[in-house]
């Protein structure tokens, strides 16, 4: 799976409810969101032969409950770059049938087309022989159709709308790194002023980075400009420089593959993040942790905690 595919998959998994509210409001309103939802990746992988894994299509399967109490499955297909245009409808049909045949579940297949070809709009798959015919139709959203509504997306309170805007600007600035930098800084400022939670802002920063990647020279200019903006606004949450340092630290820690290195990197980021002396108890706990997975989990907490006291409380065993 490419970096762009992974970014889209992560966006769907983090923002399923806003995604459906934006593109499929009727489905969204039929779901009882108080009951949560369940991702069924294992079930989907069982239906996918190894020679079909990869490509440019992101598939996710999720279980939801309706307001009438019934359980339903949603199969969401995201076509990212268009390399499967000839067999895309057939693939949707095959997955849809496999799920029904194996689990005897009614499933709704949804298609999201993130490609750059305005005329490509598959809506159905059909085949027949000697009077016997089957036709499979599916709801489909073309992201290019939202291009005239960019200002609406950017001003929306829906976090997924911001991601769609980032994707569309990435398409519009594919050959213009300067313009992409300017649009990216504008979207980041919009996030700062959106009133979204600290956790959402951090996650959306991360996802937009995946959509609107920049060459190093423009990326450096972007972070310099964003830092100046943050200083002017006296941002109360994690600044771009802190976040950037964390991302780079994560990359170094993963490359080293040693718990000791990750522990020291975590302590450095905590010091920079909270600008205070770290409690000896906290330092000892971090340095005494041999689990790399646990250290990475604690690193993620830095995005969502506002003080060293809150961080220390969150890592205590329940």
Give the helices and strands, then pairings.
Layout: H1 3-14, H2 16-23, H3 25-30, E1 38-39, H4 41-46, E2 57-65, E3 71-79, H5 88-103, E4 107-113, E5 124-129, E6 132-137, E7 140-142, H6 150-155, H7 159-172, H8 177-192, H9 198-211, H10 216-233, H11 240-256, H12 259-274, H13 280-287, H14 292-301, H15 308-314
Parallel strand pairs: 3-4, 4-7
Antiparallel strand pairs: 1-2, 2-3, 5-6
Helix pairs in contact: 7-8, 7-9, 8-9, 8-10, 11-12, 12-14
The helix fraction, in percent, is 40-55%
Number of beta-strand segments = 7
Number of domains: 3
User: What is the overall shape?
Assistant: globular
| Beta-strand content | 5-15%
Protein structure class = alpha/beta
Give the topology string: H per helix, E per strand. Answer: HHHEHEEHEEEEHHHHHHHHHH
Low-confidence stretches: none
Instruction: State the separation between the terminal residues, measured CA to CA.
Output: 36 Å
Mind summarizing the main beta sheet?
5 strands, mixed
Determine Rg (CA atoms, Å): 22 Å
Q: Output the number of helix runs.
A: 15
Chain-averaged pLDDT = 82
Strand order of the largest sheet: 1-2-3-4-7
């Amino acid at each position: 799976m490419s970096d762009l595919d992974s970014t889209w998959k992560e966006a769907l998994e983090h923002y399923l409810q806003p995604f459906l509210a934006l593109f499929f409001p009727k489905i969204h309103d039929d779901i009882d969101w108080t009951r949560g939802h369940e991702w069924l990746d294992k079930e989907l992988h069982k239906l996918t032969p190894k020679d079909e894994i990869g490509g440019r299509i992101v598939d996710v399967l999720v279980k939801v409950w309706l307001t009438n109490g019934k359980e339903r499955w949603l199969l969401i297909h995201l076509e990212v770059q268009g390399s499967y245009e000839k067999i895309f409808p057939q693939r949707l049909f095959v997955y849809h049938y496999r799920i029904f045949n194996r689990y005897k579940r009614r499933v709704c297949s949804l298609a999201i087309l993130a490609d750059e070809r305005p005329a490509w709009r598959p809506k159905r798959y059909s085949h027949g022989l000697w009077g016997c015919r089957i036709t499979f139709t599916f709801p489909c959203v073309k992201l290019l159709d939202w291009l005239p509504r960019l200002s609406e997306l950017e001003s929306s309170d829906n976090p997924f709308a911001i991601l769609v805007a980032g994707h569309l600007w990435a398409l519009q600035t594919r050959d213009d790194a300067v313009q992409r930098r300017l649009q990216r800084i504008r979207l980041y400022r919009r996030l700062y002023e959106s009133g979204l939670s600290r956790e959402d802002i951090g996650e959306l920063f991360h996802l937009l980075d995946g959509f609107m990647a920049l060459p190093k020279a423009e990326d450096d200019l972007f972070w310099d400009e964003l830092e100046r903006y943050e200083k002017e606004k006296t941002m109360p949450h994690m600044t771009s420089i802190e976040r950037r340092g964390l991302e780079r630290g994560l990359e170094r820690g993963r490359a080293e593959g040693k718990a000791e290195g990750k522990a020291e990197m975590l302590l450095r980021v905590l010091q920079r993040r909270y600008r205070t002396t770290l409690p000896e108890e906290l330092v000892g706990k971090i340095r005494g942790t041999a689990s790399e997975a646990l250290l990475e989990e604690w690193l993620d907490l830095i995005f969502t905690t506002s003080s060293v006291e809150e961080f220390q409380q969150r890592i205590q065993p329940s």
